[in-house]
Design brief:
Elements lengths: L2 H18 L3 H17 L1 H8 L5 H12 L5 H12 L6 H16 L1 E8 L5 H15 L2 E8 L6 E6 L2 E6 H21 L1
Parallel strand pairs: 1-2
Antiparallel strand pairs: 1-3, 3-4
Helix pairs in contact: 1-2, 1-6, 2-6, 4-5
Length: 186
């Protein structure tokens, strides 16, 4: 079974369980915290994936880190994953849970790169346009990338909207080179 299928299976199970027990909001908050903790520490992810370290030690570390910060239901779920020998997937399960939750709630995450920091007015305009484009609520994450010269590049999942000056210059260069090659052929 692929990593994606494993993470989807566990994330879907947790999503269903949290809805069934009416603890969806708390579990969502917990999983965000778990995801951020794993995201911040590659060493922690490597530790859990290490087959040499025994299950008891892994459970002990998970409990030490999370016991006072997440609900007992979420903690039991993490321990269940370890019991099943799938601890190396906890990070992917948390990530997949967040994706499934966002899809269920009608949210889409968009990464926007711009050459300069955008004003609040520009951010609002971009948010509204992306809401119209996706038909969903939009969560924007901004990054500065001076290499794009101006404009912006938005990434929505696998889709990229490139409205950068760099892209426009590349398009012009390509068009001019095509026109030049047509003139030389005649």
């Amino acid at each position: 079974m692929s990593d994606f299928n494993i993470s989807t299976r566990y994330a879907s199970a947790l999503l269903s369980l949290s809805e069934e027990k009416k603890i969806f909001d708390k579990v969502s908050e917990d999983i965000e915290f778990v995801f951020n903790t794993f995201f911040a520490s590659k060493e922690f992810r490597i530790f859990l994936a290490n087959p040499v370290i025994d299950e008891i030690k892994k459970k002990s570390v998970i409990e030490e880190i999370f016991v006072s910060k997440i609900s007992s239901d979420t903690m039991n779920f993490l321990l269940f994953i370890i019991n099943k020998g799938r601890e190396k997937y906890i990070f992917q399960v948390a990530k997949r849970f967040i994706e499934l939750r966002d899809k269920k709630l009608g949210f889409v995450n968009v990464e926007v790169k711009s050459a300069l920091d955008l004003s609040e007015d520009q951010k609002n305009q971009l948010t509204n346009r992306l809401k119209d484009y996706t038909g969903k609520q939009v969560r924007l994450k901004y990054k500065i990338d001076s290499s794009i010269i101006g404009g912006f590049v938005a990434r929505i999942g696998d889709t990229i909207i490139d409205a950068s000056i760099l892209q426009q210059l590349k398009s012009l260069r390509h068009k001019f080179s095509e026109d030049y090659s047509l003139i030389n052929l005649n």
